[in-house]
Structure formats: structure tokens, C-alpha cells
Amino acid sequence: MERLEMFCYQCSQTAKGTGCTVKGVCGKEPTVARLQDNLIYAIKGMSAYLYHARELGYTDSEIDGFLEKAFYTTFTNVNFDAESLVKLAIEAGEMNLKTMKLLKEAHIKTYGEPEPTKVQTGTVKGHGIIVTGHGLKALEELLKQTEGTGINVYTHSEMLPAHGYPGLNKYKHLAGNLGKAWFDQKKLFTEFPGAILATSNCALIPKEEYRDRMFTAGPVRLPGVKHIDGYDFTPVIEMAKSLPELEEKSGDVTLTTGFSKSVVLSLADKIKELVENGKIKHFFLVGGCDSRNKKAEYYTEFVKLLPEDTVVLTLACGKFRINDLELGDIEGIPRLIDLGQCNDAIVAIEIASALSELFGVGVNELPLTLMLSWMEQKAVAILWSLLALGIKGIYLGPILPAWVNEDILKVLKENYDLKLIGSPEEDIKNILKK
Ligand code: SF3
User: Fold this and answer.
1) Alpha-carbon distance 101 to 113, whole Å?
2) What is the rounded distance in angstroms from the CA atom of residue 45 to the CA atom of residue 201?
């Protein structure tokens, strides 16, 4: 029997999928179909943030109502109008701002506001569990249940910012962070001798070497991997106890995470003075969803080449391209400031808007450039949040989102001055000559 390689959720019948470039059975023009794809990605990203907020008891009926409307709009036979789909994407961006704010409130009210925290990247002697994903609630429950058991808990990838929250960092057996962005899982987890817990998206289908010592929680399901319903992690703990102990081994670097809005804004007067004295020339936000694409090395090169009178804010998986660089400080202001997970884009936005008040100019007039690395659903939602705020001149890379065609790119370039990354040297030259 002939099998379709891809199943198109637009027309449900052809194999044209996300990259559909011809009018399919659905009868939609490619641009309309792509704008619908875009909307689906954006609402998927928002749903993930909303899920984690709800886990901590925070909900918002306006966001729920928008999700319902947006999903309905992606029906095959409801909306054939490109212009209204662009408006909906902007509305999705606005709703995602609200969602990220809700999640930030949930995190801060539950775990306290993050504080700059040094995080070890080695291992300590004893049994261990490594936790990956964005789910702080799952991490907290695991920390409670492993307290006093002799098991150490390590973070991976988007779980690194957990160390900055006082309510999580108070657990002495939260021992450090191992590995980098999500895509090093297969190598890292093969080498890690303990138990593994995946709490959210960006989980990879496991290798046989560690499948039986891996567990999933929340929305994650992986073939052949045991799932924990709710928050009773006894099977994970029993597994960790049955596995060999980790050796004492120091890491190559110590990372710093946990710069909250309050921490950064407590430095506002000093930042203003340094900008006015010409000691800080430019701010960059370098971050986003990372991928194993070779071209993503751009972001490391870019930051390495930045002059010493620049400050880099970072967040999400993209931080792992740069957070082991020694950038030093400018009269006490760190040159590399890790704001947290991808959902903490809201913190970057709030800091940018506070800086724009401080300097009495609009956000687009600030000496600030956003260099975003692109990957998946959450990044779509965040991009539309930034566009909804009217932020212009964002650099995007290393490749274009799959739903963008020439028509959509033209609109994004014309209306938002969206740029694609080029070479680090050229881009730095162009940005700093302004
Ligand atoms: Fe993106 Fe997976 Fe990490 Fe949260 S969501 S940044 S890649």
C-alpha cells in the first residue's frame, strides 16, 4: 500500500504538509496555508507556557478564549483571508505576552524572584537524577521527594534557570547543570549513569542505552519510556538508587543564571551613567531556541567578536552558545546576563521598556539589538509578541521559519525591518555604525 510521507493537517488529504507550495485539495493559497501554520505554531507555544502556569494554579480565561478562537480559525474551511490571519498572529503575540507574564508571576510567587546564582557543571559522588525541560513544578516535587535520600539532582538545558529561584535553590542536593541545549541529550544521557526525567517539550526519542532509566512527566511521552502520572516520582527515585553512583568530577566552567528584572533594574542608575559616559555603547539580546544546525555557531562567533563596551542579555536554549564565555564586566555590570528560560522573554521585554523610560526614548531608539536564534513553536509565539510590541530590526537566524515564503518575508521586512543574520563581522559592523 502506498504511504504518504507527510500528512497535511490543512487539507487532511494530500502529503504536501507544512511546506505546501501549491494550491492543495484544501483549496487554500500557499500564503494562507502558511499563515495558518504560523498561527498553529504560535498557539502551540502559548499552550506550553499556559500549561506550566496552570500547573502552579495560575490561569486566565481571556487567554483560554483566544486559544479557542485561534484553533477554530485554523479549520480547513473557515478562514481564507491572509490579512485577518496576520492580525490574528499579532493578537497571538499579544496573548503570548499575557501568557508569559502569567507564567512569570506563577514562578515568582511560588519560588521567589530569581537571584544571580553560580551553577556547577560537574558531578558529585552519589546517586543522581538529571531533569530536562521547562517544568519547574515537576523539578520542585522531585527535589522534595529526594531530600535526605542521598540522591543528587542535576538540571539540563532549559532547566538551568531553576537554580536562580530561591525556592528551588534552597535544596542542597540540587547539585548542578550538565550538558547544554536540548539536542545533546542522546550523548549526555548515554554517559550519565543515573535516572533521567523529561518534563516538557524538546525531549528526544531515547537511545536504547538509557531508555529503561528514563521517565517522562506532564505532557511528555516517549516510546518505551515509563510515564509518571501526577507528581509521585517514587519510580524515578527507586531507579536512581538501583543505578551506579556518579563520580566526583569538577566541571569545566561555572555558569551564572538568575538575573531577574529587579536585579537588572537595581543597576539602572549605574547603567545610565555608563551609557552616558560612553562606557556601554550597545546592548544585545542574544538567545532563542537552539538547534544543532552548524550555522547556529554564528551566535558564539557573534558574541566573541563584540567589542568590550557591549552588554549581552541572553535567555532560552540559545544561551548555551555563549554562557561559557568569559565576558567580564563593565565597572561591575556583568557583560553577560542570563535572564532564564524562553518564557522569560517577558523579563527581557520589561527590562527593555524600563530602559526606554530611563533614557526617555522608544524601545526602537534604544541602543539595543535583538539577535534571535530560531527553532520551534515557542519561538514563533515569542517572535509575534515582539512584533506585536512594534519592535523593529530583529535579526533572525540561522534559517528561516518553514512557514515563511517570499510574500510573508516581504511583509515582515517592510513592516518590521526584520533581518536575516549574515556574517557576524558584517552584522556587528552594521549594527554598531548606527
Ligand atoms: Fe526552545 Fe525547546 Fe529550548 Fe525554551 S522550547 S528554548 S529549544
Assistant:
1) 13
2) 10
Nearest atom in ligand 1 to 48's CA: 5
pLDDT, one tens digit per residue, over 86-118 is: 999 999 999 999 999 999 999 999 999 999 999
What pLDDT sits at residue 374?
A: 79
- The answer to whether 208 and 258 are in contact (CB under 8 A) is no
- The model carries a pTM of 0.94
Distance CA 38, CA 49 (A): 17
> What single string gives the DSSP state of each residue in 212-230?
TTEEEETT---TT-EEE-T
Average pLDDT over residues 301-329: 98
For cell 492543495, the residue is: 24
* Contact of 315 with 340, CB cutoff 8 Å: yes
Q: Which atom of ligand 1 is nearest to the CA of 341?
A: 4
Mapping DSSP to helix (H, G, I), strand (E, B) and coil, where does residue 262 land? helix
Residues with CB under 6 A from ligand 1: 134, 158, 182, 201-202, 289-290, 316-317, 341-342, 375-376, 378
pLDDT in tens, 415-430: 999 999 999 999 999 9
Average pLDDT, integer, range 315-332? 98
